[in-house]
Amino acid sequence: MKRELPLRSFFDLELVILVILGAFAFAFLIDTRSYNRIAALFPRLVSMATLLLILAYLVVRFWMSLKEEQPLEKEAEASVKGKGSISGHVSLAIMIGYFLAIFIVGLTWASLVYLLLVPVWMGYRRYRIIATTSILWVIAFVCIFHYVLHTRIPQGFMGDLYQWIISR
Amino acid sequence: MWLEGFAIALQGINILHLVMGTLIGLLVGAMPGLGPMFGVSLMLPLTFGMPAATAIIFLSAVHASTAYGDSIASILINTPGGVGSVASCWDGYPMAQQGKAGTALGISSTSSFMGGIIGWVSLMVISPLLILLALKMGPPEYFLVAIVALSLLAMASKGKTLVGLALGGIGLLLAFIGGDPITSSSRFTFGTEYLEDGLPLVPVALGLFALSQAFVLAEQGGTIAQIRSIGRIRDGLLETFRHFTTVIRGGIAGIILGVMPALGISSASIMAYLVEKRVSKNPETFGTGNPRGLIAPEVAKNCCIIADLIPTFTLGIPGSSVTALFIAALTIHGLQPGVKFFQESGALPYAVFAGILLAQISFFVIGLLLARYFARAVLIPNALIVPMIVFLSTIGSFAMRNRVEDILVTILFGYLGYLLHKKDYPAICIVLGLVLGDITEANFHRAYLIGRRSYAIFVSSSISIVLISITLLSITGPYLYRLIRKMKKRVKM
Q: What is the pLDDT of residues B97-108, one digit of tens each?
């Protein structure tokens, strides 16, 4: 099995996450300067404690990365992937696309398209099942949320335009 | 009085509402991210026209079965409906992956039922004693109980205690967004109108629990169960009876934490899990599909839910946000919770208590009957499950406040949850911090002001000292444990 160089294991995704979380806590600490004493006291204590904990963990990690070699994680992860897998970044991009589609065509149509396309993207080829489940799920949940729970389902730009045309 | 109470609870109309409440609760609970709070608040308006006993029986059935339904999603797709079901994932999901989803659901139904029965007995018998203890606790003790809950969770974060605590801190910081609980001044909104009311809990929890799991399952491909089997539900039932001491330990954790207002459900199941792991001769098997790791949190959770009702009915102090809705239901029907409820309502309190017991039986029977069908979810390809989770998370996060921005919050926290999952970081610590933020800060300030701006108040009572000791022990515990094991090895060599 391949081994990483001692310090290389320190600079990975974990470091990025910790730096982001640390920056987040630091931003809160800085922001407490603009509040009154009572409003700032507890957030200041918590953000300082959080920063200290992150720093302590970074020190421990750095020390561990100097001490021992670690196997490459990517190889371990690759072995558990099954048929039709898609990476997290692609999933995120599709979800952002779904979110934007809600603004354009509304939740109902965006959801229907999403439920029809994603299984195909993930390699599932039983189209009749995909079509049946997608249509039933969308109809069932949109009806429950709209008629039973009285939720205002977003119509999107197209829906608003359609309503405007009908009202004229 | 008891016979009269049972006679009222067993009337046809009440039994019908009991079954309806159970089915609705199971459906709501099984949906990722939707827990007892959502189920009970959703059903409360429907009870306005019902008689008082029917309304409380109906809500009790929804409450108990939603909590059980939460565990279905935890076990089958590793997605807890709320903080109370997190510990059920740790051994329940590995069981589902090993082709024992049916067995795990059998364990869950039976353990939840037994937890409910233990909780019900405690509600009847030992509630006055526990209330005396709860009444001795003030703001410093409540602040410390919240810290204990956070530290216990960090302890459960599989060797990453520092990160668990840091994530708890991040959760607390997120809870500070919006109005300050003492002065009501606006904080950490960074000029955004959306953040004025604070960061909404449901979209954040849906993102971290449900959507993050969609990312993971999409990346995994295939199906959840690595073996095409679901195991036997009967095995789960028998397994629970075989571990009777685990049931008792989980019950005790549930009762003790359930009686503490506002904190029980978040820490009872985790506490029970940790205790069980600590007393086990094979702690290394926990997290890999050990039935005891599922029995303990399930018993504790349901026991805690019933124990939550002790301060609610006897003192009129809600044990949790869900039981606050029970107080609302009682008030709507012209009843006053507290001593008067027992003195002036005739057989009604007994009918309510009988209804709570029947609700446990109802979800147990219906849950066992439906478990076989629920368990088949693990055999459905991830290609079909992933878009359904995303769709449900989207509509669920939007429905609470009718704001499209909440969907974006869910997506962002979903991706954060996915990144945390990749590094085995406990995302639950963020949610627990977010849930406990307000209580922690408000009690901190109250204690600080009562103690005339001195921190000495936090160590002034024996309860505080016990709580501080538990916190220190839970933070240093994993390190001490490793140190002791190393020393033992050296001695043997």
A: 888 888 998 999
Tens digits of per-residue pLDDT, A6-65?
Answer: 555 666 778 888 899 999 999 999 988 888 888 888 999 999 999 999 999 888 888 887
Among candidates B173, B381, B420 on the partner chain, residue whose Cβ is nearest the Cβ of A124: B381
Chain B segment 350-379 residues within 8 A of A by beta carbon are: none
Q: For B187, list phi and psi in degrees, rounded to 5.
A: -135, 150
Residue A154 CB partners (closer than 8 Å, separation 6+):
A102, A103, A106, A107, B398, B404
User: Which chain A residues have a beta carbon less than 8 Å from that of B402?
Assistant: 151-152
- Chain B residues within an 8 Å CB radius of A70: none
B75, B105 contact by CB (below 8 A): yes
- What digits encode the pLDDT tens for the residues B1-59? 778 888 888 889 989 999 999 988 887 777 666 677 767 877 777 787 788 888 888 98
What would the two tokens of residue B80 be?
């807890």
Tell me whether residues B411 and A107 touch, CB distance under 8 A: no
How far away is chain B from the Cα of A24, in angstroms, using its nearest Cα? 8
User: Cβ separation of A124 and B219 shorter than 8 Å?
Assistant: no
DSSP track, B102-142: HHHHHHHHHHHHHHHHHHHHHHHHTHHHHHHHHHT--HHHH
Tens digit of pLDDT for each residue in B287-335? 888 999 999 999 998 888 887 777 777 766 666 767 777 877 888 888 7
B388 contacts on A by Cβ (under 8 Å):
115, 133, 137
Minimal CA separation from B394 to chain A, in Å: 9
How many beta-carbon contacts under 8 Å exist across A and B? 179
CA-based nearest distance B381→chain A, Å: 8
State the pLDDT at residue A72: 47
Cα gap B256→B247, rounded to integer Å: 14
Concatenated DSSP letters of B290-305: -THHHHHHHHHHHHHH
B414 and chain A in contact, CB less than 8 A: yes
Distance from CA of B155 to the nearest CA of A (A): 14
Q: What are the per-10-residue average pLDDT scores of chain B (493 residues)?
A: 82 91 84 71 76 87 86 82 78 88 90 90 74 75 82 69 88 89 83 86 81 87 71 86 91 80 68 83 85 92 82 69 77 75 76 86 88 77 87 82 89 92 83 81 89 87 88 80 80 74
Render pLDDT for B426-446 as a digit per residue (tens, 0 to 9): 887 888 788 778 878 888 988
DSSP A22: H
